[in-house]
Write a structure and sequence with these properties.
Layout (H helix, E strand, L loop, with lengths): L3 E7 L2 E6 L1 H12 L7 H28 L3 E8 L2 E7 L4 H27 L4 H21 L7 H41 L2 H28 L22 E2 L6 E2 L16 E3 L6 E3 H11 L4
Parallel strand pairs: 2-3
Antiparallel strand pairs: 1-2, 3-4, 5-6, 7-8
């Protein structure tokens, strides 16, 4: 949260702006000098870009809430926007939370098309045409199958159905790294510094996702407890001392008695080490009986 400040709150979701946004705003507005007869249109065009980005991120956040997830906040910065959301760790819930963002851009396409049919002229016509292109550009770019762009994460969610959580992330990040390499070549050939900066950030995030996938694969091979299942993500708990007591720092298995063997502190809720959500011990057993879940 360093360098961010809150600008407004809507539907229980806070929106923050990073200070560096202003530096890039000055650069981008100056780059469009001459497109309009008055500088106010340049400012309006740049603000419209981030209005579209904000609506896109609210699409993610509200969709996440609709499937029982937690939308935390939205952050706007020079590279666009980030919706900090925590959907249930299920492929369907994750897929809907991701797809809702681009669907906002899709919904805006006919709106701009109808307005442009009116053929407004002058600064207004140039402004509407530019905003229409901005919306289309954001939609196409976001749908590239490059992790962590929406397209790459949607690909991961689709693969999750057949490949599981860890392997789907591994496959999506490998595809993403190949795609990032292609975009870097394009940025170098066109000498587009801004595209190169965005691609460098995407590459670092994609590599981080690849490392996370490797960790998840190692975790997936650990032994599990049969007859129990997380009520949120349906994963069977690990068979081992992977829970940590904050009272005495003892590592223990929370499903063996529900209390810390070191200090006796009781834990009525068992936290899932995969999705982070906690539920009563009885809920884990009841779900396992209902779904037939096994380790």
């Amino acid at each position: 949260m360093r360098g961010q400040f809150k600008i407004f709150r809507f539907a229980g979701i806070s929106v923050y702006l990073h200070w560096s946004w202003f530096l890039v705003a000055v650069f981008e507005i100056q780059a469009r000098v001459g497109a309009y007869t008055a500088p106010g249109w340049n400012i309006l065009e740049y603000l419209s870009l981030f209005a579209i980005v904000t609506m896109h991120e609210f699409g993610h956040a509200l969709a996440c809430r609709s499937v029982g997830g937690t939308p935390d906040r939205i952050m706007l910065w020079p590279f666009g926007g980030v919706a900090y959301v925590d959907p249930p760790q299920r492929p369907g819930a994750t897929l809907w939370s991701l797809a809702a963002g681009p669907l906002v851009n899709v919904a805006l396409v006919p709106v701009f098309a109808v307005v442009m049919m009116l053929r407004p002229g002058g600064n207004l016509g140039e402004y509407l045409y530019s905003v229409e292109l901005i919306n289309l550009g954001l939609l196409i770019f976001n749908l590239l199958p490059i992790y962590p762009l929406d397209g790459g994460q949607i690909l991961r969610s689709l693969l999750w159905y057949k490949m599981g959580r860890a392997r789907s992330l591994m496959a999506a990040t490998i595809v993403g790294l190949v795609g990032v390499a292609a975009v870097i070549v394009l940025a170098l050939r066109s000498l587009d510094v801004w595209l190169l900066a965005i691609t460098a950030y995407i590459a670092m995030t994609c590599w981080s996702g690849f490392q996370q996938a490797r960790t998840l694969l190692r975790i997936s091979r650990l032994p599990r407890l049969a007859g129990l299942s997380c009520p949120s993500c349906h994963a069977a708990p690990f068979a081992g001392n992977y829970w940590h007591c904050p009272q005495c720092a003892t590592n223990f298995n929370i499903f063996q008695g529900g209390a810390c063997p070191g200090c006796g502190h009781a834990f009525p809720l068992a936290a899932c080490l995969e999705c982070g959500r906690a539920a009563p011990h009885s809920a884990w057993a009841q779900l396992a009986q209902y779904t037939g879940a096994r380790a």
